Structure to design on (806 residues):
């Protein structure tokens, strides 16, 4: 594959400005437009080599889409473009206050089965986590725009903590449903 | 089509005539073949007017293998030679299917290696071979009806089929001599059939309960693009289990609870009849004459029947819930529910689904035919009979793919419901000083331990230069193509030592086995293998040259410098000189060289096309200079 910039930057591939805020409808539109042209099905019946390249491009477009539409992946990717590896991000120290809050939320989650009305409680907890994530997204956006990469990375780490918690909460919910 | 040539919408780069392509629903219980005639998808009947071909193959007489009704008629007489529901055994090992096989009274070959084989009067038969017989029968039907050869086929598989099961299906097509355009998920095929007919937009759920498998898929149709958002299901749950539940109840109600193979098969057949009748009757008398000594018959009410199968139906709803969660949607976001598979005729199933999604499911298209019809439409698109941009299917990986790490743990490389094609790489390192080889164990499934996952393949990367532990960087890349088939590459970064495999699942057939079956099979019996390979190579070389010519005249000046162009044209001339000859090896080598030499050019053209594709819609951002 050639080394054009298109292969390095998902934002450019989708012809979007390199920034955190984006319109999810536009991302979807661009994604469909690119796949309409480059999906291997568009090259069915051509030589093996053409199909192989089409698979690579189509996979790249899929990867870009997956990264761009998910806020956490998107923020990690922006940090990567700014020169921070995932290890660098993971090494960021978060403040003690945040960690205390995390511990409390986690404790609530672990003792949920002893609650009088665990379902309502979980609903509230899920809402609380979702709201927290939103506020850290805003924090990230602001810091990134101001080119305060370290601050942005810290917001990103907090988003990671909360995502993980959210997944665990959803898992508890799924055991109830099954 | 030319080398990565992107035609203007509605324009085709080359004039073409309509090509014949078929869609095949290779079902557990019945199989169908459909094609497009006069712009509409139609199921092709056999000479007797029968559309459904029972997926049953009889091997009582090795000189005369029977498929369909003729085979089914022999089921009680020759239970172990008459293979039904072989789809349940595709890509499975002996240990996994023992219970199922003993329920069906099959005899299995003893070896524990590789895919299960049935012992029949005609010798050991793998489910892949039996499936090949069914595919062959369907394609013969199509060739006769359409009066000419078939360009290719789209074959449907349950969305939930894993790597081994998909590979087994593709192998069956190879043995039957059928060019596979694409393996397509059954629910996606059904959505295509509905989507095109009704011009629907929005979120669609496809509930597919067939003879042996259950699938649920959540899709979004938006401006001609079908995006599969999530898929789930159960490959070991279907209408057969409803029949078995009835038979089980009968046996529990009678004194003699064990039956001979033939009698049990007969009981299953009568249970199936009872089940079908209970869709429109309140109760049914099951005749037990010549099956058990007493009683002569048993009365089964719909209420009791529903009680027997309710746990099974509940299991399907659990899968629906998970698929919705994966798609990040609530049940009420689903605008249409499409029913597929004969088992969705049962009133209890329809009620449960309507209740779950809070809306009446669509049943306008015959649930037995809808998958084949959708596959036929997709086949027609893939052979290029429709203008570009007509319809595109974006499918997902049904089960997570992972790699074994220390302590028997699974590290997920690609999570389930990732849109395919996809390529993901992960870095690993050595754990011992001087380690020169790394074992790669590819697994599939959602569980955390390797022991609970499906083992797909193992291979070794050798030639790692001796270094201290943790110093080597080994990149393992998983690539899944549009058929959902996996390719794994491992590469040591510093030396470039490389090892790769197209995953041949542990419970798949070895290449030699396929070659052996090909040798025996009808499709190749009369054909010289060499002549066939030469012809194929000639066609693909000519395709490559034609494509490059068009590409060079369009973009050669703009994207290549004089030297690059000279190299490319030199290699084209080399290939031209060989293309009509009979030196297969040189032809192959020359084509590969040209292919490699033109890769970079092709990639540059793709980049240019991307820019063009987006420039039409993104003038506002371009104006802001974002492109800089």
């Amino acid at each position: 594959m050639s080394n054009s910039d298109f292969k390095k930057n998902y934002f450019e591939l989708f012809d979007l400005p390199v920034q955190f805020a984006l319109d999810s409808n536009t991302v979807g539109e661009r994604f469909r437009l690119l796949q309409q042209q480059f999906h291997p099905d568009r090259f069915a019946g051509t030589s093996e080599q053409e199909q192989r390249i089409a698979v690579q491009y189509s996979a790249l477009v899929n990867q870009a889409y997956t990264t761009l539409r998910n806020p956490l992946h998107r923020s990690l990717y922006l940090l990567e473009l700014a020169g921070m590896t995932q290890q660098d991000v993971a090494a960021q120290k978060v403040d003690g206050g945040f960690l205390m809050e995390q511990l409390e939320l986690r404790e609530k989650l672990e003792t949920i089965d002893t609650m009088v009305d665990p379902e309502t409680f979980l609903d509230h907890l899920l809402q609380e986590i979702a709201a927290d994530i939103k506020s850290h997204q805003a924090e990230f956006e602001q810091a990134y725009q101001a080119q305060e990469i370290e601050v942005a990375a810290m917001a990103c780490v907090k988003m990671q903590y909360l995502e993980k918690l959210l997944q665990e909460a959803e898992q508890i919910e799924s055991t109830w449903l099954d | 089509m030319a080398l990565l040539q992107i035609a203007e919408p509605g324009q085709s780069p080359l004039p073409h005539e309509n090509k014949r392509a078929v869609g095949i629903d290779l079902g557990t219980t019945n199989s169908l073949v459909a094609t497009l005639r006069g712009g509409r998808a139609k199921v092709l009947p056999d000479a007797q007017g029968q559309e459904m071909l029972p997926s049953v193959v009889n091997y009582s007489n090795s000189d005369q293998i029977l498929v369909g009704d003729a085979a089914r008629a022999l089921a009680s007489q020759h239970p172990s030679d008459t293979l039904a529901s072989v789809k349940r055994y595709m890509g499975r090992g002996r240990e996994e299917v023992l219970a199922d096989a003993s329920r069906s009274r099959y005899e299995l070959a003893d070896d524990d290696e590789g895919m299960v084989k049935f012992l029949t009067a005609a010798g050991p038969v793998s489910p892949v071979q039996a499936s090949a017989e069914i595919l062959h029968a369907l394609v013969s039907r199509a060739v006769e009806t359409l009066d000419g050869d078939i360009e290719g086929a789209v074959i449907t598989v349950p969305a939930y089929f894993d790597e081994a099961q998909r590979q087994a299906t593709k192998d069956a097509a190879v043995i039957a001599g059928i060019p596979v355009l694409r393996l397509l998920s059954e629910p996606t095929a059904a959505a295509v059939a509905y989507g095109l007919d009704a011009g629907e937009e929005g979120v669609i759920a496809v509930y597919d309960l067939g003879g042996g498998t259950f699938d649920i898929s959540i899709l979004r149709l938006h401006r001609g693009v079908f995006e599969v958002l999530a898929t789930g299901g159960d490959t070991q749950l279907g209408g057969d289990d409803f029949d078995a539940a009835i038979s089980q109840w009968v046996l529990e109600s009678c004194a003699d609870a064990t039956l001979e193979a033939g009698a049990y098969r007969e009981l299953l057949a009568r249970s199936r009849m009872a089940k079908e009748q209970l869709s429109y009757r309140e109760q049914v008398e099951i005749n037990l004459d010549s099956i058990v000594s007493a009683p002569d018959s048993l009365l089964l009410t719909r209420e009791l029947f529903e009680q027997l199968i309710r746990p099974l139906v509940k299991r399907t709803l659990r899968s629906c819930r998970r698929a919705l969660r994966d798609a990040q949607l609530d049940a009420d976001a689903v605008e249409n529910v499409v029913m597929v598979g004969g088992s969705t005729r049962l009133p209890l199933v329809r009620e449960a689904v309507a209740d779950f999604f809070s809306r009446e499911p669509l049943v306008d298209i015959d649930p037995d035919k809808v998958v084949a019809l959708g596959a036929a439409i997709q086949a027609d698109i893939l052979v290029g009979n429709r203008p570009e941009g007509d319809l595109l299917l974006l499918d997902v990986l049904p089960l997570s793919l992972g790699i074994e790490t220390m302590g028997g743990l699974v590290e997920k490389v690609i999570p389930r419901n990732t849109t395919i094609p996809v390529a993901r790489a992960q870095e690993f390192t050595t754990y011992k000083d001087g380690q020169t080889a790394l074992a790669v164990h590819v697994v599939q499934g959602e569980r955390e331990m390797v022991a609970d996952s499906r083992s797909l393949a193992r291979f070794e990367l050798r030639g790692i230069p001796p270094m201290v532990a943790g110093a080597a960087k080994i990149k393992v890349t998983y690539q899944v193509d549009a058929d959902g088939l996996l390719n794994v590459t491992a590469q040591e970064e510093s030396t470039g030592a490389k090892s790769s495999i197209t995953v041949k699942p542990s419970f798949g057939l070895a290449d030699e086995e396929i070659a052996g079956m090909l040798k025996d099979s009808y499709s190749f019996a009369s054909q010289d293998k060499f002549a066939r390979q030469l012809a194929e190579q000639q066609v693909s070389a000519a395709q490559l040259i034609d494509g490059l010519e068009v590409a060079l005249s369009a973009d050669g000046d703009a994207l290549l410098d004089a030297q690059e162009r000279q190299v490319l044209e030199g290699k084209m001339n080399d290939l031209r000189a060989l293309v009509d000859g009979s030196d297969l090896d040189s032809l192959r080598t020359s084509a590969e060289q040209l292919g490699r030499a033109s890769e970079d050019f092709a990639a540059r053209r793709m980049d240019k096309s991307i820019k063009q594709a987006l420039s039409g819609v993104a003038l506002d951002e371009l104006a802001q200079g974002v492109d800089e």
